[in-house]
Amino acid sequence: MQQRPADPGGHRWLALGEEALPADERWLAPAEAATLAGLRYTKRRTEFLLRRLVTKRAVASATGRSTDPATLAGIEVRNAPSGAPYLCVDGVPTELGVSISDRAGWAVCMMSPMGPLAVGCDLELVEPRSRGFVRDFLTTAEQRLVGSCTAGDERDAVANLIWSAKESALKVLGTGLRRDTRTLEVTPDAPRDDGWGALTVRAVEGTVFPGWWRREGQFLLTVVTRVAATAPVALQPGRLALAAPRHSWLDRPLYP
Fold first, then answer.
1. Where are the beta strands (DSSP E) in the chain?
2. Model confidence pLDDT, tens digit, residues 181-216
3. 60: which of 10, 53, 92, 219 lies 20 to 30 Å off by Cα?
4. Mind listing the pLDDT tens digit for each residue in 165-178?
5. What domains can be seen in the chain, in order of their start residue?
6. Which residues contact 230 (CB under 8 A, 6 or more apart)?
7. Cα gap 4→13, rounded to integer Å
């Protein structure tokens, strides 16, 4: 098991589902509301709202701010030209790093005291991945690891864990899926008693990123950081472990 140095500041994370979305949009910053107005597909609107809500709520919780609409509207999620999110509070950029991911009606925000682009997180469902997917997106060593697993849930969990860790690392690198995922190799450790397992992601150029992963019910969560850190702390433990995946947008693909 990898050793992690003490990290007093630590990383904090929060998960929220679609049912947490407010009935109105007063909690959005003006620029966020303008972006939302241009989104016509329900899936994109829901993901946009959920990603912002979980980030604002996480920041408010971690900094002792109120969660009333006016205060949340002052916490704005903006995107750099690369697409990476960054925070502004009352119009001023902050040094708090954030990474956001959503999947099947749920979203996670991971906060880092180490600044922007210091952390990447990804949320995935434990679901089947085809042999073609494993062959096309995983390295030879990763394919062997998946192949060594018992078919079914174990294989699905490992395949999605590897994929999720790659996605997290690509966020730290600032490239997203523009980079070949086979240029990164994931090595996961077994989970500890607290549910977190250590992992490393090694890039072909030699850079090694440390990280963590955990199984939360039907979901998998990974986090990758630029420098080693202790396992993240949940602001509201247990919520994601009981979560049911949702695809509510299928009932009404177009808005309104």
1. 12-17, 75-79, 85-89, 92-93, 97-103, 106-112, 119-125, 184-188, 197-203, 208-216, 219-225, 233-234
2. 999 999 999 999 999 999 999 999 999 999 999 999
3. 219
4. 999 999 999 988 88
5. 9-113 (3.90.470.20), 119-225 (3.90.470.20)
6. 4, 5, 6, 7, 10, 11
7. 18
